[in-house]
Amino acid sequence: MERLVAPSMLSADFANLACDIEMVNKSQADWFHLDIMDGVFVPNISFGFPVVERIKALATKPLDVHLMIIEPDRYLERFREAGADWLTVHYEACTHLNRTLSRIRELGMKAGVSVNPHTPVELLTDILEYADLVLIMSVNPGFGGQKFIPNSIARIERLRKLIDQKGLSTLIEVDGGVGPSNARELYQAGANVLVAGNAVFKADNPLAAIEMIKNA
Fold it and tell me: Would residue 204 show up in a list of annotated catalytic residues for this protein?
């Protein structure tokens, strides 16, 4: 099964962002993960279109953009223009989720849907065919550096079973408290894409940390 690593740029050094982008470019990482927060859907504010555009200009790998915002439909086209290759919206923020995911695909991006830790993955049963990716939040979204919620393993396993039963190729991404210590367990549970922030950018050797996560 495919194993991808997406370093979370929320944990990068924004005073030396170009250096951290170049590190990810040179690494075994597969995507750049960008968390967009509005201070409403989650209790934090991150960065907007100008930062996404600058990362896109320097990145040699796809941008995996995660919208932790209300009313994401208002900004789908704008994030496509800013450079998003994958665009993920939250189940909890979308009234007409299949319409939103279909629109993301129509715009030429891969469509993702994310669920918070308290949201049963079974609620996605009828929407999986519209999603190229499901992002399991293994912490409550809003801040980096949080502790992994152990029950996330069972949620990944249940989601993997749903996807396989439907014969779909939907990827499972996991974000929150991910690092070399639990990467193997996450892959074994059925995850395809691991998002790592502090485990990469706070490591003594970020390149080695990425390699350890990818080859766990």
Answer: no
The overall longest dimension of the chain from CA atoms, in Å, is 46
Domains of the chain: 4-214 (3.20.20.70)
In the set 20, 30, 35, 132, the catalytic residue is 35
Choice among 38, 64, 132, 175 that is catalytic: 175
- Reported as a single tens digit per residue, the pLDDT across 23-40 is 999 999 999 999 999 999
Give the pair of three-digit tokens for residue 48.
């907007």
Note the pLDDT tens digit of each residue in 68-78: 999 999 999 99
Q: Are 34 and 4 spatial neighbours (Cβ–Cβ below 8 Å)?
A: no
3-class DSSP state of 87: strand
Total count of residues recorded for the chain: 216
Distances 83 to 32, 49, 140, 163, 209 between C-alpha atoms, Å: 11, 9, 26, 28, 26
DSSP string, 113-174: EEE-TTS-GGGGTTTGGG-SEEEEESS-TT-SSPPP-TTHHHHHHHHHHHHHHTT---EEEE
Phi-psi region of 26 (alpha: psi -120 to 50; beta: other; left: phi over 0): alpha
Q: Annotated catalytic, 20?
A: no
Average pLDDT of span 152-173: 98
